[in-house]
Amino acid sequence: MANDRDRTAPDNEHEPLQKLLSILASPWTLLLLHRLHIEGPKRFGELRRRLGRISTKTLTERLRLLESEGLVTRHYEPTVPPQVTYSLTEKVLELDGVMIELDRIAERWYGKGGRK
């Protein structure tokens, strides 16, 4: 009977991984983190141009999410117009090996010019 109870009990063991994957798997998030990782701190407009077809709304949402999760910092300069720069935190640098390996796999699978 104990086994039946174990099978129906919620599995909280994977909760931290589920949370991390739900953040990273949202559209544009990994590419955004990758750009900041490879190219360093960027202003909003620069990020938007470097990411291609991302909408202003989506980029804003992703940056807010990443900031709330402690993965990105937002540096505000009260100039006219205001300058806001985004950069990675030390926390997200733990993903360094993962991002490098994903980059290698993408190159092998798809190359620089697209699909092989």
From TrEMBL:
<protein>
    <submittedName>
        <fullName>Putative HTH-type transcriptional regulator YybR</fullName>
    </submittedName>
</protein>
<dbReference type="InterPro" id="IPR036388">
    <property type="entry name" value="WH-like_DNA-bd_sf"/>
</dbReference>
<dbReference type="InterPro" id="IPR011991">
    <property type="entry name" value="ArsR-like_HTH"/>
</dbReference>
<dbReference type="InterPro" id="IPR001845">
    <property type="entry name" value="HTH_ArsR_DNA-bd_dom"/>
</dbReference>
<keyword id="KW-0805">Transcription regulation</keyword>
<keyword id="KW-0238">DNA-binding</keyword>
<dbReference type="GO" id="GO:0003677">
    <property type="term" value="F:DNA binding"/>
</dbReference>
<feature type="domain" description="HTH hxlR-type">
    <location>
        <begin position="15"/>
        <end position="114"/>
    </location>
</feature>
<dbReference type="InterPro" id="IPR002577">
    <property type="entry name" value="HTH_HxlR"/>
</dbReference>
<keyword id="KW-0804">Transcription</keyword>
<dbReference type="Pfam" id="PF01638">
    <property type="entry name" value="HxlR"/>
</dbReference>
<dbReference type="InterPro" id="IPR036390">
    <property type="entry name" value="WH_DNA-bd_sf"/>
</dbReference>
<dbReference type="GO" id="GO:0003700">
    <property type="term" value="F:DNA-binding transcription factor activity"/>
</dbReference>
